[in-house]
Amino acid sequence: MRIVVATSACLDPVQASELGVTLVPLRVSIDGKDMLDVEEVSPREVVRLVRNGVDLKTSSPSPGDYTAAFDAQPGPVLCLSEASGVTAINSAARVAAEMVGAGRVEVVDTGTAAGGLRLLALEAARLAGKGLGLAEVKERVSELAARVQVVGMLETVEFLVRSGRIPEIAHWGASLLRVRPVVRFQPPGGSLVALARSQLKGVRELHAAAIRDVRKQAGGPCGEGVHCSVFHADAAELAGELLDELGRDLPHAELSVSEVTAAMIVHTGPGLVGYALYVDPPHGGG
After folding, report:
1. Edge-first strand listing for the sheet containing 273-279
2. CA atoms within 13 A on the CB side of 81
3. Pick from 179, 160, 153: nearest CA to 238
4. 250-285 in b/e burial notation, b at 16+ Cβ within 10 A?
5. What is the pLDDT of residue 24?
6. Contact 108, 9 (CB under 8 A)
7. For residue 119, what are the contacts with CB-CB under 8 A and spacing of at least 6?
8. Is the pLDDT confidence value at 175 over 60?
9. pLDDT tens figures, 86-143
């Protein structure tokens, strides 16, 4: 069984290949030319462009892109998609699944994105590697998807306002001037967690929010059962600080770090740092 996911899942192509995960690239439009996310355009290039004021756009993979991914090899496929309320990826994947034939491809709307989708793809690949069947992996991932929490600190709200991905962010208005908003991703929108007046305070707010999320899901006292991915966009140092703080308080947690892809940076802007996490149900409450 193969796992198929869009490049917005923040998985390194080499890691994805080793795990048997097929990445379907989004497209980034640069001067009217569509470039394939990860394959043809890098995060560094997009950071340079957006910091120079270049207006970029993205587009989701087409049903044809997904059909090609599903048919690349024989056998069953579990396709994990971003939250359907914020992107067309889920609908494109479902159209493609119908095209390749009933029963061979299952599509899960994970209700998350970026680091959250990364965690679910990693778990799905692990379970598939253990020999679990399509129905079993789908059930497990669907259960975990309901537990995933994603929180990020933005350098500016400009890009999210422009993308329209979190509509209510445009109404937070003047309160966000000269501060870094810490936002919880809650499809189809988001909620404001805190306002940080410095990068350091922002990292502390993220750390505190992560610990609250772990406690809410009844994670172990040293992070037992916790799966957490720290992600960033041109903010490796901040991501490292957050990872170190979480590692000190949750030494038994499964922690990883990743850089978001070029397509994600178009929507969030550079300077983003955040986390995605869930606690395994055996360790957590309902």
Report:
1. 189-196, 180-186, 149-153, 273-279, 226-232, 254-259
2. 26
3. 153
4. beebbbbbbbbbbbbbbbbbbbbbbbbbbbbbeebe
5. 97
6. no
7. 144, 148, 227, 228, 229, 276, 277, 278
8. no
9. 778 999 999 999 999 768 999 999 999 999 999 999 999 999 999 999 999 999 999 9
Contacts of 75 (CB under 8 A, 6+ apart): 1, 2
Q: How far apart are CA 29 and CA 60, in angstroms?
A: 11
Give the full edge-to-edge strand order of the sheet including 33-36. Answer: 33-36, 27-30, 57-59
Six-digit token pair at 15?
A: 């890691």
What pairing do the DSSP bridges indicate for beta strands 180-186 and 189-196?
antiparallel
**Which pair of structure tokens corresponds to residue 134?**
């399509």
- Encoded amino acid at 205, one letter: E
Distance from C-alpha of 196 to C-alpha of 209, rounded to nearest angstrom: 13
SS3 label, residue 235? coil
pLDDT at 230: 98
Taking alpha carbons only, the member of 108, 166, 120 closest to residue 278 is 120
